[in-house]
Amino acid sequence: MKTEDQRIHVDELRKDCRIERQLLWKELISVLVLLILGFIREVWLK
Amino acid sequence: MNWLTVTCTILVILGSLPLWVSMYQFLIIGIHSRRNHYARTAACYPRVSILVPAWNEASVLTSTIKILMNMSYPKDKLRIYVIDDASTDETPQLMAEKTRQFPNNVFHLRRENGGQGKAHTLNHGIRLVLEEDWSEAFLIMDADVLFEQNALRKMTRHLSDPQVGAVTAYIKEGSRPGNLMTRFIDFEYITAQAASRRAQNVMSFMACLAGGAQLHTRKNLEAIGGAIDTSSLAEDTFTTFKTQLAGHQAIFDGNAIVWAEEPDNIDGLWKQRLRWARGNWQITKQYWHLWFNKTAHARLGGFAFGMIWFAILLMPVYMILAATGLVVLFFSDFAWSWMLFRMFWILNVIVYVFVTLFSLLIDPKSARQSWSAGVLFPGLISLTVIVLSYFPGALEAVLLRGQEYQDWREMGIGTRVAVLFIYSWLALSMVAALLAKCVEKTPLKKLAMPLLLLSGYGPLLCAITFNSYVAELRGKEMKWDKTEKSGKVEIQ
User: Fold this and answer.
1) Of all residues in chain A, what percent are helix, strand and coil, respectively (each to 5)?
2) Mind telling me which residue stretches traverse the membrane in this protein (chain A) (predicted)?
């Protein structure tokens, strides 16, 4: 495989893996928002 | 608790199954950050034959071919075959021009006797292209689908793993200017593709390789018989099942992005999705031995896949079951029905907040266009119940006027009607969505979108699925209703 192809592949792979890693954080943010909303409901609104 | 209460409680719990399934799928998406196929990819440029079935697609073919030719993929490893299903528009003239312009890359395969549908058209092309040894991989796509420059390269990189038989891309709605319907579809595709298919990657199965962008290795295409299934309306799902049953892996790459034009009205969506839903029934019947049977196939026969498949296929049934359970309990044991109703909608609040927020975060670019559609996805009435369920005592204040009832006979007539309406809403929302479809073709068509906003896009999809039950039970003729394309799709 040509070096140029290899470089493009590695660059794209790095970028895409970063996007995939961010998914975990995005999921944690969503769970956190859910927990905060639950906390507000159960503690402040009740 | 008597048998009636127990039965109705079970119905309501069953009715909540799609919510649990949805939550489960979204919860495991995070695992995709570690458990994905990227580690097994490499720079890989096989000789790819792109198969474009086309019937009267002249309005979109020029831009499709131009974009395919501009992809960052070696031109000597790319052939585009437009399989013309006896088009009666300017397709032949256009293709004559394109084949002159790109003599080594663009080919026109014309069927003089067409009209048999996409699968037959594709098979005509596959048969001819397979006769030559040139192709190492086949990209099956729709004529209106526009590939981002690096999309094909991002798909072929997975083929460096010999286990992989097929790869699909993330199809995004690209009509501009869009309308409410296209924004609903845009959001739906985040949940159904970018989210759900990543979850399926994690679970090592794939329910469906998108028909508009599926890449197959030659080995895989030959292993599944060298042809696309023509007996059903969901040839892409059949291909997906056959790929996995042949022992090959099917992969979704959420970073390989392609753009497509989707229906911009209820009628167009109804025809398209009815075809898909009927196809899913046909698959369910064809692979009856597979469901919840791990000995038949470790992944497709697994519990998780069965639950996901039937949560979608039977969604209207679940909604009707929950509504029925609540309405019967209203008369037999009101206090218990109210408690169940509140619990059901609290679960709805949790799933709605989590799924909507996470979906918008998964694809922030699409979210900028379609966040309002995501918020309004369940419809205004369900959204009101969701909001009221969040605030303690709000549902009681609005529906029961702050009173506590043990029996329905204690209520005034207005309260009874209001509570019964909300209890039945899960089922009624599908009727309202059907009404929106019906008025769209009448002089009252301006009411269609407000009705859709009230009923919700989710219930519209459920109503279509319900229609597919009726069509399949009646054995209605399988008709390939082509989605009208205007060529207004753009790569964003």
Assistant:
1) 95, 0, 5
2) 23-40
Of the candidates B32, B24, B23, B30, the one whose C-alpha atom is nearest the C-alpha of residue B204 is: B32
Q: What is the 3-state secondary structure (H, E, C) of B340-385?
A: HHHHHHHHHHHHHHHHHHHHHHHCHHHHHHHHHHHHHCCCHHHHHH
Q: A3 pLDDT band (50/70/90 cuts)?
A: confident
Indicate the domain borders of chain A: 1-46
Question: B411 pLDDT exceeds 70?
Answer: yes
**In angstroms, what separates the C-alpha of B260 from chain A's closest C-alpha?**
22
Return the residue in B35, B41, B255 with the most chain A beta carbons within 10 A, the one to mutate for interface testing.
B255
Contact (CB, 8 A) for B365 and A19 = no
Q: Helices in B252-333 by DSSP H: which ranges?
A: 266-286, 303-313, 315-332
At A9 the three-state DSSP class reads helix
Q: Specify the pLDDT at position B460.
A: 96
Smallest CA–CA distance from B389 into chain A, residue: A41
Kindly state whether A43 is in contact with chain B, defined as any CB-CB distance less than 8 angstroms: no
Coil, strand or helix at B140: strand
Interface probe, candidates B35, B160, B351, B361, chain A, greatest A C-beta count within 10 A? B361
* Cβ-nearest to B354 among A16, A19, A30: A30
| Structural domains of chain B, with CATH | 3-21+312-473 (no CATH), 44-287 (3.90.550.10)
- Predicted complex ipTM exceeds 0.85: yes
pLDDT at B483 over 70: no
> pLDDT (tens digit, 9 = 90+) per residue, B244-262?
999 999 999 999 999 998 9
B394 touches chain A (CB under 8 A): no
